[in-house]
Amino acid sequence: MTLVDQFESVFRSAERSRYAFSAIDVKKVLLVTDLEGAEAERFAAKTRAFLAEIEGASWTVLTNDDYGDVAALRAKVTEMAPDLVVSYRNLRYTTWRWPYSLGVYLNVLTRETDLPVLVMPNPHELPDWQRDTTSAVMVLADHLTGDDRLVDWGVRFVRPEGKLYLAHVEDDAVFERYMGVIGKLPSIDTDVAREDIEARLLKEPRDYVESIGEVLAEQGHLTHALIPLVRWGHRLADYVALIEEHDVDLLVFHTKEEDDLALHGKAYSLAVRLRDVPILML
Hints:
Layout: H1 3-13, E1 28-32, H2 37-50, E2 58-62, H3 70-80, E3 84-88, H4 104-112, E4 117-120, E5 136-141, H5 148-157, E6 163-171, H6 172-182, H7 190-218, E7 225-233, H8 236-245, E8 250-253, H9 265-273, E9 279-281
Parallel strand pairs: 1-2, 1-3, 3-4, 5-6, 5-8, 6-7, 8-9
Antiparallel strand pairs: 4-9
């Protein structure tokens, strides 16, 4: 390595991705249910109480007779242009008895719109589900660094004096695959490369979380505990264990692949499996 290369490496290693806060304004909420009458009113009241952080928003409730099919609901959503859609898995279907999908309505809302969709526990499946607050919110990503919008939504919903968990799960399977290739290159010291790359991969999200605390404190928005969770993993069970360990009230994560054509595989699997945890899908 030349002297110029050494200076460039030192300079780049000192770079940090710094969080830039942008307030999330939720003025209009659309709640979609397949309930009717008093049942729909109870579900709406329970959901509004849970989302006390946006109590000033204007709420519209669509009950079972307000939309005929998926296309009609899609048209209603386009017409109303809400800032947030709230619904639940397997809307208008009894397939909640077989918990292997989100159902066609949520699939369309999450794939064909750019709207945030909050997935609540299904009231048919879990009629007694009750959480009164969003005191424990987890922002979950496999690449948290630089994902300001994801963090902004977590900040928007966490209650004052609550806990905002910022979770970054670095894919250890991908890391080991690349280390296997590096191990076959005689020009690279594998042990040194492993140590340096491991340290760097975990340092970046930790530095980013540190900047989140600094920025929120500077702007007067740090009214809650900020807890970094940076670890290795890749299996669905690794993510589930992390969520259950901290008794999360609300989970926030991205759902689309980079090409925006399909739901992120791991995100979809989590949304299907965690049926008693409200999930904000961005």
